[in-house]
UniProtKB/TrEMBL annotation:
It is found in: Secreted, Extracellular space. This is tripeptidyl-peptidase II. GO terms for biological process: proteolysis. It holds the Pfam family Pro-kuma_activ.
């Protein structure tokens, strides 16, 4: 047996309370080594880079699966190991690179030389079964990437993962004034009409039915059809309030439609996609899995399993990067690379804690990046506010400790670092993937939740706004017989894309709470608070050649 993954200590916020009961049944997920992940990443950049002859030639489902399927000898070796323990694996991913097994703790401890124990959160008292290390037979080391859940612990604070500042949930205000942004300038409530005005997002309905936009939901957050109806009536009187959406249920995710089941995040996401990407078919995915990290993975598999996945997927959920193990984060980031290669723009919120993590944590001592924001194969969206826009102080931004800086951003990030000089040295990882890539408005967004019109703030608002802009661009591209935009960053950072944004040049993000430590600042050009800035639809259209 050879140790495969281990952590030195029980994580902060947990205490071990003793061994797990031997008959507790574990659902473990085994990631097999993919046969050619490097080839998949090369293919992703080949089809996503405007300079490539293959730009826009998205891979098919079968082509992607051919890169990530495990080798036959991996499948054979792992299956024979499992069957020696009387276990049958289920394929969890379309390519068969993730397998699921169910087994009692006694068997798992034996098979994996593990010590599955009960750990109790010192904050909430809730318990979780994990092990500090696990091993696999040495002849399987090269066939198994990782097994989950094992050494990754849930957030001990029981933190909710939507990237939203629920504290700002005050009533929305509207004004009779005919100027589209009167509600913002007079009371601070953002509306779709003002976003259309600010970014030039067209109100005319999209025409291409094969286009799509999806938002992904977790943790029993349920979007409400009645809330969308009310939102459209109030804020988009020009569109049919019965505009409907499709639900994809994953892992038994339900879709209750009682006002008491309304989820802030889910309603916000749906209202700023169906309500802004006018006429683009909208989908809500609802994951029923308890473990958020597993939910992210399974949502990715569900999308990969579709012959024609929605071309834009917006996710306003995340965590601190250090909650994910490097191997889990890499594997999940590679799921997003697969979707990118299929032509899907994967868009995520950058987090609401500035440099301090997913939510503001005034106890951080070094900057704390968020994930999936730091995955190099996705597009991350920060937040702005006020008109003219400045960076919102909570806008998540910074540098990964897991993923090195991708080539596409090396020039603009070097320029920012040169400006930063020695400020913040030692607090962030200058060699890491920097984020966000772009930004959009994120303060006091009007939303209807459980029948009540109110305002909420967060990069949770920014991501669907940006995603909707891309979905409408895709509609125009498809109508012109051109391919959709897919993975955006190589294009965004190529110059043509970046030029189509309003550069946000002032404001700074939340620090660790120490006034001497300022976090990062927005400036001319790309910065790790607002990226390239906020979209200008007309310029984006010309940047894509329309
Ligand atoms: C297994 O973990 C428990 C704590 O949950 C500890 O008391 C016990 O000593 C460990 N056993 C071994 C063999 O390490
Ligand atoms: C494994 O699956 C086979 C075929 O479906 C079945 O016959 C067998 O009983 C299963 N074994 C276990 C241990 O579940
Ligand atoms: C957001 O809304 C609150 C409550 O209505 C208001 O006090 C605040 O000034 C608004 N913020 C901005 C930036 O407009
Ligand atoms: C900094 O990021 C690189 C990846 O770019 C990583 O290899 C290194 O371990 C990180 N350093 C720290 C201290 O986390
Ligand atoms: C660096 O920090 C100093 C002291 O806080 C501040 O006055 C200066 O403006 C900062 N420079 C940059 C480029 O951030
Ligand atoms: C941070 O942003 C605030 C609000 O935009 C501004 O007043 C302040 O001068 C900024 N501080 C720095 C150091 O840039
Ligand atoms: C009016 C209408 O068709 N409403 C449907 C919209 O979609 C949701 C989710 O698929 C259904 O629950 C509603 O019945
Ligand atoms: C320098 C600066 O403006 N820092 C701000 C960062 O954000 C926090 C709150 O999120 C403010 O209190 C700081 O003033």
């Amino acid at each position: 047996m050879q140790v495969h993954e281990a952590r030195q200590n029980v994580p902060t916020g947990y205490t071990a309370t003793g061994p797990a009961s031997s008959d507790t049944v574990l659902s473990l997920r085994v990631a097999l080594v993919q046969n050619n992940i490097a080839g998949l990443i090369d293919a992703l950049y080949d089809v996503s880079s405007p300079s490539s002859p293959n730009y826009g030639k998205w891979l098919s489902k079968t082509e992607v699966e051919a890169y990530v399927a495990p080798k036959q000898d991996s499948v054979a070796a792992v299956n024979s190991w499992l069957s020696a323990y009387g276990l049958n694996a289920t394929a969890l991913s379309p390519a068969g690179d993730w397998l699921g097994i169910e087994l009692p703790v006694s068997k798992a401890n034996n098979m994996l030389a593990a010590n599955f124990s009960v750990f109790s959160s010192t904050v909430t008292g809730s318990t979780t079964v994990r092990t500090l290390s696990y091993s696999v037979p040495s002849d399987l080391v090269d066939h198994i990437d990782l097994i989950h859940p094992t050494i990754i612990f849930p957030d001990p604070n029981g933190a909710k993962r939507p990237v939203i500042r629920v504290a700002d949930r005050t009533a929305s205000k509207t004004f009779d004034d005919s100027s589209p942004c009167a509600s913002v300038t007079e009371s601070g409530s953002m509306t779709p009409a003002c976003l259309q005005h600010l970014y030039g997002i067209p109100a005319t309905p999209a025409t291409v039915s094969s286009n799509g936009i999806a938002v992904t939901e977790y943790e029993e957050q349920y979007a409400q059809g009645a809330d969308l109806h009310s939102f459209l009536q109030q804020f988009r009187p020009d569109v049919n309030p019965d505009t409907n959406y499709t639900v994809i249920s994953i892992d038994g995710g339900e879709n209750p439609q009682d006002p008491n089941d309304a989820g802030v995040e889910a309603d916000l996401d749906l209202q700023y996609t169906a309500g802004l990407a006018t006429g683009v078919p909208a989908t809500v995915t609802i994951d029923g899995e308890d473990d958020f990290l597993t939910g992210l993975l399974n949502t990715g598999f569900s999308l990969l399993g579709l012959e024609s996945p929605p071309q834009v997927v917006s996710t306003s959920w995340g965590g601190d990067e250090n909650e994910f193990s490097p191997s889990y984060a890499t594997n999940l980031c590679n799921v997003y690379a697969q979707l990118g290669a299929r032509g899907v723009s994967m868009i995520f919120s950058s987090g609401d804690g500035g440099v301090s993590g997913n939510q503001f944590e005034d106890y951080c001592t070094i900057f704390n990046p968020t994930f999936p924001s730091t995955c190099p194969h996705i597009t991350t969206v920060g937040a702005t506010y006020l008109i003219p826009e400045v960076a919102a102080d909570f806008s998540g931004g910074g540098f990964s400790n897991y993923f090195p800086r991708p080539d596409y951003q090396s020039e603009v990030v070097s320029a920012y670092l040169a400006l930063l000089g020695n400020n913040d040295t030692g607090l962030y990882n200058a060699s890491g993937r920097a984020y966000p890539d772009v930004s959009a408005y994120g303060v006091n967004c009007s939303v209807v939740i459980g029948g009540v019109t109110q305002v909420v703030s967060g990069t949770s608002c920014s991501a669907p706004i940006f995603a909707s802009t891309i979905a409408i661009l895709n509609d125009r591209l498809l109508a012109a017989g051109k391919p959709t935009l897919g993975f955006l960053n190589p294009w965004l950072y190529s110059g043509a894309g970046a030029a189509a944004f309003t550069d946000i040049v002032s404001g700074n993000n939340t620090s660790c709470g120490d006034d001497d430590n300022l976090g990062f600042f927005a400036t001319k050009g790309w910065d790790p608070v607002t990226g390239f800035g906020t979209p200008k639809f007309a310029s984006l259209l010309s940047a894509v050649g329309l």
